């Protein structure tokens, strides 16, 4: 009986582990599978000789230079080939056929949703010779009628955004009209994505992340708002897009989370924002208020690379990859100047002789509830004042703004409202390629978004106290081999996808109870 060496034993264990992992993930996906929209790229092309005649059964090898993952297919009888489900990244494509020099295309960049044509014209010669074409020339799109625009990873990193949200970048799309607010808060769920494209309704936009729907069907906002640093790129499909994007009446926005590569990469940085760097608000100046607190103190870290065991598993670092990102954002954002009508010193002493309807000199009459007659001089009988209610009245602050030339009597108390909105986000993506015919990826994402009231007195009816939202988005995708997954009309025989998302909300607070003593009408 042959005795396995230590190395062979490790190899046997790894192979069994690969098969078991593949089986488990496949069962999970089929158990929870759901319809999802493709977020990957596709390469199409034709291989001919120098006379223009088709070259059948030519070998096409597509290699992702970021990860080292390669796929090999053959052209059909008409020399054509289609390679779907290619992850975004940098590629090298090589075409080989017996009796011809090999053709090679380097530095090909695939972006989310691309359908890129790469044709080869092979010359007669030794197969050991290679003719290489370098560069990613700009070409007219002839294989798709869609109108779309891309926001790349570099743009996501380099362009300034209001509130550190990628929704700001939607407005870069031709035909976009932004209806977003001035002070945007980073968030882990929902967010201000109010951008209309080509006059379409905001609620008719469709948001996708890694091919799965990311839209709150109870409204028009995202179920999960991914961290700016976790997104690789996104595409805005504005018109004439394919049937796979059929769930939108306006624009389809496809986002893709970053993936790990065969080399380790990471970032760590700090984002700072403070009201000391801002000019004061016009209305704050008008009412003599200082600058409102406006602070971001964001710490963000990312790390991606291969998962391997030196000398034991995946020594080439071309099978299993991860990408992890974390955001900690203790944010404070101004909500504008709130205006209130507070009890004056006279009113606190039951004297309403100087109480007038806003913008007029007409006195507000106060009636005795026992006689239904107006109090003499509009002064409430001190004997009818309830001591408990008098103490409750003293909870309200005294007026701090009495310039009626500005307020016209509509308010006498101003409060620059500020909201604390802490955000924590964690995202982990795993990509696994057990062979050149199978590819599996999974993404786990969690976010926490809190709201903690306003500074000072929160005294207007209906205001809720501290709130928090926990959101999550999980996704698994398995892509298997197809019948010759290479021919013109070929497609993977197995493409199973599962997407789960959720959001839970908790809140605590109060609303003022309306208590009447003297009746005012």
What does this structure look like?
The chain is mainly beta. 10% of the residues lie in helices and 37% in strands. It has two domains: 32-133, Immunoglobulin-like; 147-337 and 417-507, TonB-dependent receptor, plug domain (Ferric Hydroxamate Uptake Protein, Chain A, domain 1, Beta Complex). The protein has helices at 6-31, 153-158, 282-286, 345-348, 387-393, 404-407; strands spanning 41-49, 59-64, 70-74, 80-86, 89-96, 102-110, 115-117, 120-122, 130-133, 147-151, 176-178, 195-197, 206-209, 212-213, 231-239, 252-257, 265-273, 296-306, 320-340, 366-367, 413-435, 438-451, 467-479, 495-507, 519-520. It has a seven-stranded antiparallel β-sheet, with helices on one face. Strands 3-2-5-6-9 form a five-stranded mixed β-sheet, with no helix packed on it.
């Amino acid at each position: 009986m042959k005795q396995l060496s230590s190395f062979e034993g490790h190899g046997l264990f790894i192979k069994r582990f690969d098969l078991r992992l593949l089986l488990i993930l496949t069962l999970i996906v089929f158990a929870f599978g759901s319809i999802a929209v493709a977020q990957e790229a596709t390469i199409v092309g034709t291989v001919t000789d120098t006379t223009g005649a088709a070259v059948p059964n030519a070998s096409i090898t597509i290699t992702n230079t970021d990860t080292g993952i390669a796929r090999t297919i053959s052209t059909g009888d008409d020399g054509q080939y289609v390679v779907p489900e290619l992850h975004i990244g940098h590629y090298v494509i090589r075409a080989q056929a017996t009796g011809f020099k090999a053709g090679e295309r380097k530095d090909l960049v695939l972006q989310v949703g691309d359908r890129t044509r790469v044709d080869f014209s092979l010359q007669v010669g030794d197969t050991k010779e290679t003719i290489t074409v370098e560069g990613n020339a700009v070409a007219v799109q002839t294989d798709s009628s869609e109108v779309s625009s891309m926001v790349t990873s570099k743009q996501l990193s380099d362009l300034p955004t209001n509130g550190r949200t990628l929704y700001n970048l939607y407005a870069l799309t031709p035909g976009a009209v932004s209806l977003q607010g001035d002070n945007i808060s980073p968030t882990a769920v929902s967010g201000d994505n109010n951008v209309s494209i080509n006059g379409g309704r905001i609620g008719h936009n469709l948001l996708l992340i890694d091919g799965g729907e990311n839209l709150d069907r109870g409204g028009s906002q995202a179920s999960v708002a991914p961290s700016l640093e976790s997104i690789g790129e996104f595409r805005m499909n504005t018109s004439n897009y394919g049937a796979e994007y059929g769930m939108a009446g306006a624009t389809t926005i496809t986002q893709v989370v970053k993936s790990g590569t065969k080399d380790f990469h990471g970032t760590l940085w700090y984002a700072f924002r403070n009201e000391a760097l801002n000019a004061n608000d016009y209305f704050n100046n008008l009412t003599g208020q200082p600058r409102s607190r406006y602070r971001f103190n964001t710490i963000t870290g990312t790390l991606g690379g291969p998962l391997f065991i030196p000398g034991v598993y995946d020594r080439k670092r071309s099978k299993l990859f991860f990408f992890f990102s974390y955001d900690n954002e203790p944010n404070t954002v101004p909500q504008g100047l709130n205006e209130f009508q507070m009890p004056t010193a006279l009113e606190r002493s039951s004297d309403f002789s100087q109480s007038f309807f806003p913008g007029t000199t007409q006195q507000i009459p106060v009636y005795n509830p026992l006689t239904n007659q107006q109090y003499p001089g509009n002064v409430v009988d001190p004997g009818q004042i309830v001591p408990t209610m008098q103490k409750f009245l003293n909870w309200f602050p005294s007026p701090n703004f009495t310039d009626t030339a500005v307020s016209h009597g509509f308010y006498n108390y101003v409060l620059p409202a500020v909201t604390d909105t802490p955000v924590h986000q964690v995202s982990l993506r795993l990509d696994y390629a057990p062979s050149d015919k199978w590819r599996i990826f999974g993404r786990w994402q969690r976010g926490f978004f809190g709201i903690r009231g306003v500074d000072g007195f929160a005294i207007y009816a209906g205001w809720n106290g501290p709130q928090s939202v926990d959101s999550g988005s999980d996704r698994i995708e398995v892509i298997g081999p197809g019948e010759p997954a290479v021919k013109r009309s070929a497609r993977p025989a197995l493409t199973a996808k599962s997407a789960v998302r959720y959001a839970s909300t908790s809140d605590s607070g109060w609303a003022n109870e309306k208590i009447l003593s003297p009746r005012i009408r």
